[in-house]
């Protein structure tokens, strides 16, 4: 993942609510999330060789040493990424990730056809819709990056996908206002996406 920084953060209003359509759908999305909780498990066949996926496939950590695993076409070979096993082509889906105090991660969704080999610029143009933390910086993975108005680590992030509405939104549990909203028109199957240097655990 290449690190690019904008000179200054965008205003919170622009970062949080990029379109009027997003605002109009927001209250409906909050109600839908109650019924959209997905039991996400990780797909070890996609995990970078330096990532160790837990036996129950609900957590993953970076080991620093490459494991002796098959270099199958599904596996990320440069970026320390892993995908969720189940993909989505319709409906609403919500899941939470706990970072355990970690400061280097990215979470979101990626299209099943996302590039797995070589270095990747995380952005919608590369079929990845994600937010990340790198040290004290919080960003939406756009090109160029969009700095987010967060002043401290969220600890947990909720990811909400509405396939038909073309929305991916990110929440701090207990906060009604989204951290960021992507709006687009999806095609193909989407999978939960994780870029891992800090350990992450899927909740509950």
UniProtKB/TrEMBL annotation:
InterPro entries per record: B30.2/SPRY, B30.2/SPRY_sf, Butyrophylin_SPRY, ConA-like_dom_sf, PRY, SPRY_dom, TRIM/RBCC
PROSITE patterns (alphabetical): B302_SPRY
Alphabetical list of SUPFAM superfamilies matching this protein: Concanavalin A-like lectins/glucanases
Chain ranges of the B30.2/SPRY domain: 19-204
Protein's name according to its UniProt entry: B30.2/SPRY domain-containing protein
Source organism (scientific name): Mauremys mutica (yellowpond turtle)
Lineage, highest ranks first: Eukaryota, Metazoa, Chordata, Craniata, Vertebrata
């Amino acid at each position: 993942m290449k690190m690019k920084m904008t000179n200054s953060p965008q205003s919170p209003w622009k970062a949080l609510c990029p379109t009027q359509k997003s605002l109009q759908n927001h209250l409906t999305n909050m109600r839908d999330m109650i019924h959209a909780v997905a039991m996400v498990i990780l797909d070890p066949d996609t995990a970078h060789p330096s990532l160790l996926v837990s036996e129950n496939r609900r957590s993953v950590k970076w080991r620093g040493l490459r494991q002796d695993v098959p270099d199958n076409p599904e596996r990320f070979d440069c970026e320390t990424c892993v995908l969720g096993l189940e993909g989505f082509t319709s409906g609403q889906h919500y899941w939470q990730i706990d970072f355990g105090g970690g400061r280097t991660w990215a979470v979101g969704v990626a299209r099943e056809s996302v590039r797995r080999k070589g270095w990747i610029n995380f952005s919608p143009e590369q079929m990845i819709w994600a937010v990340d933390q790198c040290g004290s910086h919080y960003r939406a993975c756009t090109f160029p990056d969009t700095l987010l108005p967060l002043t401290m680590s969220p600890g947990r992030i909720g990811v909400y996908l509405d396939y038909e509405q073309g929305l991916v939104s990110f929440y701090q549990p207990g906060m009604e206002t989204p951290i960021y909203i992507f709006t687009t028109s999806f095609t193909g199957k989407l999978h939960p996406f994780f870029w891992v240097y800090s350990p992450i655990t899927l909740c509950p």
